[in-house]
Amino acid sequence: MATLPSAERRAFALKINRYSSAEIRKQFTLPPNLGQYHRQSISTSGFPSLQLPQFYDPVEPVDFEGLLMTHLNSLDVQLAQDLGDFTDDDLDVVFTPKECRTLQPSLPEEGVELDPHVRDCVQTYIREWLIVNRKNQGSPEICGFKKTGSRKDFHKTLPKQTFESETLECSEPTAQAGPRHLNVLCDVSGKGPVTACDFDLRSLQPDKRLENLLEQVSAEDFEKQNEEARRTNRQAELFALYPSVDEEDAVEIRPVPECPKEHLGNRILVKLLTLKFEIEIEPLFASIALYDVKERKKISENFHCDLNSDQFKGFLRAHTPSVAASSQARSAVFSVTYPSSDIYLVVKIEKVLQQGEIGDCAEPYLVIKESDGGKSKEKIEKLKLQAESFCQRLGKYRMPFAWAPISLSSFFNVSTLEREVTDVDSVVGRSSVGERRTLAQSRRLSERALSLEENGVGSNFKTSTLSVSSFFKQEGDRLSDEDLFKFLADYKRSSSLQRRVKSIPGLLRLEISTAPEIINCCLTPEMLPVKPFPENRTRPHKEILEFPTREVYVPHTVYRNLLYVYPQRLNFVNKLASARNITIKIQFMCGEDASSAMPVIFGKSSGPEFLQEVYTAVTYHNKSPDFYEEVKIKLPAKLTVNHHLLFTFYHISCQQKQGASVETLLGYSWLPILLNERLQTGSYCLPVALEKLPPNYSMHSAEKVPLQNPPIKWAEGHKGVFNIEVQAVSSVHTQDNHLEKFFTLCHSLESQVTFPIRVLDQKISEMALEHELKLSIICLNSSRLEPLVLFLHLVLDKLFQLSVQPMVIAGQTANFSQFAFESVVAIANSLHNSKDLSKDQHGRNCLLASYVHYVFRLPELQRDVPKSGAPTALPDPRYHTYGRTSAAAVSSKLLQARVMSSSNPDLAGTHSAADEEVKNVMSSKIADRNCSRMSYYCSGNSDVPSSTTAPRPASKKHFHEELALQMVVSTGMVRETVFKYAWFFFELLVKSMAQHVHNMDKRDSFRRTRFSDRFMDDITTIVNVVTSEIAALLVKPQKENEQAEKMNISLAFFLYDLLSLMDRGFVFNLIRHYCNQLSAKLNNLPTLISMRLEFLRILCSHEHYLNLNLFFMNADTAPTSPCPSISSQNSSSCSSFQDQKIASMFDLTSEYRQQHFLTGLLFTELAAALDAEVEGISKVQRKAVSAIHSLLSSHDLDPRCVKPEVKVKIAALYLPLVGIILDALPQLCDFTGVDTRRYRTSGSDEEQEGAGAINQNVALAIAGNNFNLKTSGIVLSSLPYKQYNMLNADTTRNLMICFLWIMKNADQSLIRKWIADLPSMQLNRILDLLFICVLCFEYKGKQNSDKVSTQVLQKSRDVKARLEEALLRGEGARGEMMRRRAPGNDRFPGLNENLRWKKEQTHWRQANEKLDKAVIFNLGRTLESPGEL
């Protein structure tokens, strides 16, 4: 508090006490020097200064590797081995086979030489996952109790505890059921009942006889027996009985990414049971598919089903030479990624072609009923014979007949779906550490299919059997999909469609249900059997391929190569009159002769699995028919210019004429599969040739056929008259120009090619190859997001290979490292910025996290392939890098990058001191290396090696070195993006380093020699720059804090991983530099402690945390430090009363912080948080306590720490925490209404009342009289003028459970020696602490426990609300009195209704008559000044 000069003070003001009552009272419970830390002011140019305690600076860590090598023989090696071996690495590079849904993986056909791109794709899809595991990290035993479910249900395994008070309460209602009772069991004086319930003396059982009751037992034996009895049936793990900490602070949980899998949407199983009409005269064929009316899109392929009887199947035996088992399926599994109320299941019915319009053929079904008998039966038999005749003659041709829509809106919870869809763009995608998914997340990248239950589907989606009793007759001129969507829209709006379109009575029964996860005897869309697939079942299920309404961002993981052809419309209006009943024969040709038709067309129902040709349905007497067929083709893996689709148009004669052929040729058309080496897809309008096609026609498109001799005769003068649509569902063909060009140019480098090469519509010469490849690398990010995601794994693999693979083009070495790295950075930026892709709790893009964890592996280097004109003698592989010119050049680039505006690189920003610091950091790390990191400096056309540099041997060229180098030398927006999404590049570095270590010779496995000094310098530079970026973001506005936290967590996980790979002393120094940098640059203490706490919490979650802290070493094995300890400043008064060696074990000394580096840093943060006085420190204190609690909980539940001797060592590691807790005693939550910390007597009411009186010294001090202060040895001027932050109840409980765990597991003899020499003040504080433990963990019964939980949550709110009411409305005692007088508000029914306003009769007086002065004492503790009291 600021005061006036002494000359200007008023006389009476000199006598006023300048300290609050709370501060004075608190001082009487503290050691004299608590809080008197010397503080230092740290000021860095460009950053505001911050007052920090002297002990806050991290000490120099020990030389970890050197200490182990010199002291290993003298250490307790067995304990170290139990928790992790030091000599052998705990890294395990595992090749895990991919989970394959099918009995055999999906592969291209055998015996075909594959193109390089197809080969790479197939290799990517079938190769094993490469996963880097660590021993003991994430094992089920360690994490079992940490998972929410296991700890939540742990109490069920414990024996049930029965308490006397609850037994009496529970037995009271049933006491009246006994046969005979005594009313009350009274005492001798008759003052009242001894118990609250009645007793039936006859029902009481005698107590067990006490053996040896009268024998004399020594006190030692008696105490030993009691101790053994107390330890009987004790739970070994204390934290197993304690509620788990809120996972909000659990930043150390790094969720394992979801394994890449084939995308499956919401799966529904549809079984077709029965298809019948009023009369059964001919075979009918059903096909079903899903349509989304709102999106106006067909969202599934067709499923064909044959429900005919054996009699009708016999009609077509001449046209079905074989019947595959796969074609007899009657149940289909549909997948729906985006459920909607506008989805319809459309059933289409076809019949064998016969003479007559559709209406004429449907007439018998409308007018004849089999139940009529008589003439009806005769007509039916006649119609059967007629149908059999048509089947024998025209059995391979079909005609449309009827259709029926089935709405699926009742199977989806529409209200929840619509709400989630509207919010999908505003919700940030989250994967799950908790594994719950939402509809919004299913639209995002990493999520697999929505489960129907969580989608609102499963709750109402029960197995339902539906019956369709009428079908709409097909109309010959309205068969297209556009017409179908109009019909469905009308059908949804009203029933007018039923009045306008004729309905055919019939019965279709089908069953719709949620598809189970495991379906026996199921086939994929490629007809591959899915596990499990029993051999004895004949009728399989079929999975139906989905055509999602929107993009699905899931990378390809299986080989799939399908082509769908949709004939749409043919216009032969001006053709000859003979063209009426038109059908199209569709074939997939590999050449031009008739035998070149390939059997790659999927068959329909009750027929072969694959066909060479398929015919479209015929619309009777229609010269411009519409078609609705879907032709599904299995594309060959190797496509050539000879592959094409051939369309042959025929007129079908329905009337049988002697000598006349059924088919009359009308014309041809074709579509080449490849155009400029790229698969052709999309909509086309093709011309139709009326005569036989000329040789080599397939080499050209139908629209651009060169002039022939004789010329080709075309319909409509070579105009387009045939509309088709071709769509591909392929994990081989990218269907994106940028990706296509990139892959083509990459493969041209890997194999012998003849220049010039054709890429799309461009011819590229050998001299232009390098330029075009660099351009294609840059343009990769311009690809559409969906194909980029679909081929993400292959794209990243190729880029990483280009970054390290030496390339020789036209005799010159080409370097693509920088371009490849910048392209990876741009792709990472695009994926993170997409709102449709999900992220985990740390902001990691789930696609990239999945790639790094499962897919990424070190690039396989190949020998340079000389292109034409290259010399035969190849140069040795070199370490090709972007190159360092000089320290000055690099520093200038970094400085330029910092000055650039983040939003517009053309706009310069302000030059700050932070930029200078980055410049200094970079130049100091690079100044001694110049350009020795490259064999050729790729600048301009200079390809001559520098005379001052030595090439790096090929054995030393490593991906992790190249990646680290690119991160260091990146500039501008690339550098900004690299460190914004640093987690991705950190995890790439770690996995590549792990593979490097795994591949090393075991003789070269010493941590100090694993990695080069240059690489370690790069790591130091990266850590320093990232730390500087974090600090720079934290001093910006609030919106940058989230990004800083993500970078902070990423850096922590990076160093966490490096502790398993590199020299641990080197990593400890990186941690120390990080702490020093943040302390020097941040101006907000809560932010500083919070960032360092999250950072340390992640590091301390390491699976070898205990060994990293050398917990098994004695206190005198580490190097000593002359620095004074914190505890010597805090507890100097007790140093003369105890042995210094034992006392130092409970102190946070500099020697301790040096030897146990990570634990010392964590305790430093806790001590600083508890000692801080600034605003907003409460949350930081909670986080600090939570971090300690989480650590001890993990130790307690770790199966490696079960042995008692291990727990003793661990407890010894945490002994300084006891001293910190004792110092924080005044800040702990008070769990009583009376100050019972200093008055723990339990006597009569009078004694308690006396104990609660105000201490005289405290009262005199508050009054301003310091007479009695001299007798206590405390000088008023030495009191710290500070207001401590009180911890809440939950934080106090967490701290107390940590204290109890240490006291429970520590060496008891050590504890006794320590306590024996403590002064009385310290003993009182320990007793106070134990009494607080009793209070906060005391079981107060069911009713009290329920009340406590409510009171803890509502206490602060209620007090605030009452205070506001009293102040704002002027309603004090009068308002309370009026509320009590209101009917129904009598809170104390024992009081008189006409209670007057009398002090001695008020309810608060009666409720608290025993507290008396203790209430005033507690009020004085909570108020801030004597005036308020």
Q: List the uncertain runs.
A: 1-48, 83-87, 139-150, 173-197, 414-460, 864-915, 921-955, 1115-1138, 1234-1281, 1384-1429
Percent range of helical residues: 25-40%
Overall shape: elongated
Let me know the largest β-sheet: 12 strands, mixed
Number of strands: 32
**Secondary-structure-derived class:** alpha+beta
Mean pLDDT: 75
Strand content: 5-15%
Which secondary structure elements does this structure contain, and how are they paired or packed?
Elements: H1 21-27, E1 39-44, E2 47-53, H2 64-71, H3 77-82, E3 91-96, H4 116-126, E4 129-134, H5 140-143, H6 148-152, H7 164-174, H8 219-231, E5 266-277, E6 284-292, E7 297-298, E8 303-305, H9 310-315, E9 331-336, E10 343-352, H10 358-367, H11 375-394, E11 398-407, H12 414-422, H13 439-442, E12 464-473, H14 481-493, H15 496-500, E13 503-514, E14 522-523, E15 529-530, E16 541-543, E17 561-570, E18 582-589, E19 601-602, E20 610-611, E21 613-615, E22 631-634, E23 644-652, E24 663-672, E25 674-675, E26 678-679, E27 682-686, E28 722-730, H16 737-750, E29 757-759, E30 762-764, H17 769-778, H18 785-790, H19 792-804, E31 807-809, E32 812-814, H20 817-833, H21 846-855, H22 887-899, H23 913-926, H24 959-969, H25 972-980, H26 982-999, H27 1013-1034, H28 1041-1058, H29 1064-1081, H30 1085-1100, H31 1105-1108, H32 1126-1130, H33 1140-1144, H34 1150-1155, H35 1157-1171, H36 1177-1196, H37 1204-1213, H38 1215-1223, H39 1245-1251, H40 1256-1263, H41 1289-1305, H42 1308-1316, H43 1320-1337, H44 1341-1369, H45 1373-1381, H46 1403-1407, H47 1413-1422
Parallel strand pairs: 9-16, 14-16
Antiparallel strand pairs: 1-2, 3-4, 5-9, 5-13, 6-7, 6-8, 6-10, 10-11, 11-12, 12-13, 14-15, 17-22, 17-28, 18-21, 18-23, 19-20, 23-24, 25-26, 27-28, 29-30, 31-32
Helix pairs in contact: 16-17, 19-20, 21-26, 22-23, 22-25, 23-27, 24-26, 24-27, 26-28, 27-28, 27-29, 28-30, 30-35, 30-36, 35-36, 36-41, 37-41, 38-41, 41-43
